[in-house]
TrEMBL record:
Gene3D superfamilies: NAD(P)-binding Rossmann-like Domain. This is SDR family oxidoreductase. GO terms for molecular function: oxidoreductase activity. Keywords: NADP, Oxidoreductase. It holds the Pfam family adh_short_C2. It comes from the Bacteria. Coiled coil: none annotated. It comes from Zeimonas arvi. Belongs to the short-chain dehydrogenases/reductases (SDR) family.
């Protein structure tokens, strides 16, 4: 197999949650460029419509399915609709997530439970459904989870009051490792990307306050951009990564290395 062929995703079917903007859309662009047909899911239909049009302008076949993955019934509806549209699923990218900022001693229970429901339980239920109904029966699959450097270590300083987010992303890290061990015999790889700081709607408030300080503390002296996850995502989702599983790759400009 040539290297070019190893990265090719022609004929593959992929689901990307939180795929209407930000990091999810970046990954959708990459998978689509390499030939995959996509279902992208998000809560807001208008944002999905815009993303589908954006991808179509790049020559990517994508279908938008509105879904609230913080609710079990929303996960079930997405799994049904995506498999009906695609026929099967080769690649599942679990990107949908949320954050909440509050000191640990004052963190609202409602917010804690919201993040657990979306960032962990929704990811588990969708992966379970797609694995059981499509990947395991076909003996092939690529699961790519979006963790975060916030799940690799604690945090201090201004903008660090995100205990529920950090906790759930730490859960994504070990979910990835545990599932890789369990589903490896089915021909399914399970890996995760752990992004550092990328400009997005989720990170805007933090970057407005301490963005320059973050860049100064990052060895490459920059934030992530619209291209920085694409190559790694394609590696993990293609046959180029067929012998990589249970791994967490920090894409953070070196921040966790120092």
């Amino acid at each position: 197999m040539t290297v070019k062929k190893a990265f090719d995703l022609g004929g593959r079917k992929a689901i990307v949650t939180g795929g209407s903007r930000g990091l999810g859309l970046q990954i959708a662009e990459a998978l689509g460029e390499m030939g995959a047909e996509l279902v992208i899911a998000a809560r807001r239909p208008e944002e999905l419509d815009q993303a589908v049009m954006h991808l179509a302008a790049q020559g990517v076949t994508a279908h938008g399915i509105p879904a609230d993955l913080g609710r079990p019934e929303g996960v079930s509806k997405l799994a049904d609709a995506a498999l009906e549209r695609l026929g099967h699923c080769d690649i599942l990218v679990n990107n949908a997530g949320a954050t909440w900022g509050a000191p640990a001693e004052d963190h609202p229970l409602e917010a804690w439970l919201k993040l657990l429901s979306l960032n962990l339980t929704g990811m588990f239920l969708l992966t379970q459904a797609i694995g059981k109904r499509s990947m395991i029966p076909r003996g092939y699959g690529r699961v790519l989870n979006l963790a975060s450097i916030a799940g690799l270590r604690g945090s201090t300083g201004e903008g660090s009051h995100t205990i529920a987010y950090n906790t759930t992303k730490g859960g994504v890290v070990n979910f990835t490792r545990a599932l890789a061990g369990e589903w490896g015999p089915h021909g399914i790889t399970v890996n995760a990307l752990a992004p550092g700081f990328f400009p997005s709607k989720m990170t805007q408030a933090t970057l407005d306050k301490i963005g320059e300080d973050i860049k100064a503390r990052t060895p490459l002296r920059r934030l992530g951009d619209d291209e920085d996850l694409k190559g790694a995502a394609v590696l993990f989702c293609s046959d180029a990564g067929k012998h990589i599983t249970g791994q967490i790759l920090a894409v953070d400009g070196g921040m966790t290395a120092v």
